[in-house]
Amino acid sequence: MLKKILASVGIGKATVDTLLLSPQLKAGEDFSVEVIIKGGDVEQQA
Predict the structure, then answer these.
(1) For the chain, what are the domain ranges?
(2) How confident is the model at residue 43 (pLDDT cuts 50, 70, 90)?
């Protein structure tokens, strides 16, 4: 129960990072990203 409360305020929750794979972009240009999801300490729902 305590872990769920802590996750609700951001402690021990899953994290999602998005990395841009192109060093430069121009307006309107297509681009690729890498999404990195790291699990937290508590089961979470969307």
Answers:
(1) 1-23+31-46
(2) low
Residue 19 to residue 37: CA distance in whole angstroms: 11
21: tokens are 């794979």
The two tokens of residue 23 are 């060093």
Residue closest to 13 by CA, chosen among 35, 36, 37, 44: 44
pTM: 0.52
| Antiparallel, parallel or unpaired: β 33-38 and 15-20 | antiparallel
Cα 4 from chain centre: 18
Number of H helices, E strands in the chain: 1, 2
